[in-house]
Structure formats: C-alpha cells, structure tokens
Specification:
It is a single chain. By secondary structure, the chain is an all-alpha fold. 82% of the residues lie in helices and 0% in strands. The protein has a single domain, classed as Membrane associated eicosanoid/glutathione metabolism-like domain (Four Helix Bundle (Hemerythrin (Met), subunit A), Up-down Bundle), CATH 1.20.120.550. Helix 1 packs antiparallel against helix 2, helix 1 runs parallel beside helix 3 and helix 2 runs parallel beside helix 4. The longest helix is centred in the middle third of the chain and has 29 residues. Pfam families: MAPEG.
Length: 134
C-alpha cells in the first residue's frame, strides 16, 4: 500500500530542481575558475558554494517536517503555505547572496522565510504531540 503525500512531494520536487540549479552554478564556476576542491581565490565560487551549502543545511530538515505534518493530517492550506514559503524563501536567499554577501532585501526574506517555516513546523509538531498526551 502506497502512502500518498502529494503536497510534500510537490515541494520536494520543486526544491530538488532548485538544488540542482544551485549545484549547476557551482559546477560551472569550478570549471570557469579551474577549482576542483574548495573555492580557491574565486569569490563567485565561494558565494555559490555557500548558497548551495546553506540550502543543503536547511531544506532537508524542513522537508522532513513537512512530510511528518502531512502524515499527521495537517490541512492542505497550511502545508501549501509552508511549502510555498520555503520555496520562495530559498529562491530569495540565493538571489540575495548573489546580489551582495552583505545584507539585502532578498537575503532577509530568505532567512526570515526559512526561520518562519522552521518555527511553524516546530510549533505544529509540539502541538500535535501535546494534543496526543491530553
């Protein structure tokens, strides 16, 4: 019997495409700057590696929580809101870091959006568990 998780799968697919695009940017810069390991002296590559790395640090965990929420029966509207915000936040984070390694509106949206997703997911998980205990 297959477990259907259409909302989580939608955002996992979209985020996988974004992850792939970020990886392609890193690979192209490695070729361009002839850097096999690390970032050498290339600032562009250093930024691209951090954008890709930051994505890899945050997205798997937030996706796991999204799946758990869907498995527990969270509303479709909530799941779409969280998944959509996560996708937009990660796109904004990548754009923001490409614009400037310092503060930018896009990076701020990316960071805040990602943290909001994490906090909402954490709140949902804790609320769900507390409700089970009652």
């Amino acid at each position: 019997m297959a477990i259907e998780l259409p909302i989580s799968m939608l955002y996992a697919g979209l985020l996988a495409l974004l992850y792939f695009a970020l990886a392609v940017v890193v690979i192209r810069l490695r070729w361009r700057d002839k850097v096999g390991i690390g970032t050498g002296t290339s600032k562009d590559l250093e930024v691209a590696v951090r954008i890709h790395g930051n994505f890899a640090e945050y997205v798997p965990f937030t996706l796991l929580l999204l799946v758990l929420m869907e498995l527990t029966g969270a509303s479709g509207m909530l799941l779409h809101a969280i998944g959509g915000l996560l996708f937009v936040a990660r796109v904004c984070h990548a754009i923001g870091l490409r614009m400037s390694v310092g503060p930018s509106w896009a990076r701020t949206v990316g960071v805040l959006g990602t943290f909001i997703v994490l906090l909402v997911e954490a709140g949902y998980m804790l609320g769900y568990v507390m409700g089970m205990q009652a």
